[in-house]
Design a protein that fits this description.
This protein has 283 residues and is mostly beta strands. 0% of the residues lie in helices and 47% in strands. The chain is elongated, with a radius of gyration of 21 Å.
């Protein structure tokens, strides 16, 4: 937090983005905050706060403003969707009484995606590995190790280190991380996973996590079809063994998100929900 000295009876405190620390056991926390810049611009009788989204994905932002002797033109907390590569006016603040001093502070949090999006529940996903290969779901929906809370509707496949990870659905790659090398059962490693994040046409995002160091094989901005090679499986981050964590989610606001159960095509069924402990073969 940066404090700006009082000038002309005004004090402004600008709070930089707060990176939410996810609960222990969360697979990964993608840092959408690094693509968002929130700035306050002083006026003689108040100020304006705007946000710049430099990402290729929409980003949902929740803003909280604390006011002393000021009024805001919008109710707080304020949740807005920042369009890709855009600047958005968030709120205008005005001094209530003069010549009394006034003061405002603000903080914000963000999540990738559009909180107004809705998942296409009729969509059938491809299994995120090579055709003809068979893998076990080692942790399913509600898995005891780490699939709790927001992460409940996630799947872990027992891919070995170096196995190919393929796109389960078409979309645009909007974020990647490939620099991490360490993995283990320590929850402190939850932000040390390598991953690929794909934006789907319904506004949801597919997340492929625990890839090996330098194991990402696509660049941000790449349009991928289902079955496109995204990367190589690994054991980075909060992970007890090499595997692939996969989930589909949408933000609810700038602080919370919703994981979504998805149907897959397998050699046994045209569309089915996967279960922990069972093996599945991609047609």
């Amino acid at each position: 937090m940066t404090k700006i000295p009082a000038m002309n009876h005004r004090i402004r405190i600008v709070a930089t983005a707060l990176l939410l620390l996810a609960p222990a056991g969360v697979a990964v926390a993608q840092d959408s905050n690094r693509f968002v810049q929130v700035t306050a611009h002083d006026r003689k009788d108040g100020g304006d706060i705007e946000a710049v989204n430099q990402s290729l994905a929409p980003i949902t932002l929740t803003l909280n403003v604390t006011l002393e002797n000021m009024q805001a033109d919008k109710e707080m907390p304020l949740t807005v969707v920042l369009k890709p590569r855009s600047t958005t006016q968030l709120v205008s603040l005005r001094q209530e009484t003069t010549p009394d001093k006034y003061r405002y502070t603000y903080k914000f949090n963000t999540k990738y995606g559009d909180c107004e999006s809705a998942h296409d529940d009729d969509h059938v996903y491809q299994l995120p590995f090579e055709a003809g290969r068979t893998y076990r779901v080692i942790q399913g929906y509600g898995g005891k190790f780490s699939h709790q809370g927001e992460e409940a509707n996630s799947l872990d496949f027992d891919l070995a280190a170096g196995d190919k990870v393929l796109a389960a659905r078409e979309g645009i790659v909007v974020d990647t991380e490939a620099s991490h090398a360490q993995g283990g059962k320590d929850p402190k490693l939850k932000n040390e996973s390598n991953y690929v994040l794909v934006l789907h046409d319904d506004g949801t995002l597919g997340c492929y996590v625990h890839l090996k160091k330098n194991g990402v094989k696509v660049a941000v901005g790449t349009k991928v079809a289902a079955g496109t090679l995204l990367g190589l499986s690994g054991n980075t981050g909060y992970s007890s063994r090499p595997h692939l964590h996969f989930d589909v989610y949408r933000p609810l606001d700038g602080e919370k998100s919703e994981r979504i159960k998805t149907k897959f095509k397998t050699t046994e069924h045209e569309a089915e929900m996967l279960e922990e402990g069972k093996t599945y073969t991609r047609p």
